[in-house]
């Protein structure tokens, strides 16, 4: 339940390179790096509800650990996959619908921050959130 609460983006590491690897154009990359993303996470056993709100959209995502679901990124890229718990980490394995390539993600609490890591085509990026 450590993930419960509201998290506001604080900083990014290598996020523009990650978006470039994902095929996101330069304009959207510039906007995406400054999206003011805020996530509210509520865990109830194996079920999670995540509300994402940014400069571009507000979306509610519900998922159950180990159960595949569909998700669209802010740029419209559609994914299918699932989240699982591995120790204290939420680990996501997703497949892009347009090209079948894998996108991995994980969320973990480090100190008082939520660190969300993305890996796509060998490019790793981090988005670091603070409780808001």
TrEMBL record:
Residues 5-22 form the Cytosolic fatty-acid binding proteins domain. One of its GO terms (molecular function) is fatty acid binding. Keywords: Acetylation, Cytoplasm, Lipid-binding, Transport. InterPro entries: Calycin, FABP2, Fatty_acid-bd, ILBP, Lipocln_cytosolic_FA-bd_dom. Gene3D superfamilies: 2.40.128.20. It is found in: Cytoplasm. SUPFAM superfamilies: Lipocalins. PROSITE patterns: FABP. The keyword Cytoplasm applies. Pfam families: Lipocalin. The keyword Cytoplasm applies. One of its GO terms (cellular component) is cytoplasm. It comes from the Eukaryota. Coiled coil: none annotated. Belongs to the calycin superfamily. Fatty-acid binding protein (FABP) family. Monomer. This is Fatty acid-binding protein, intestinal. It comes from Patagioenas fasciata monilis. The gene is FABP2.
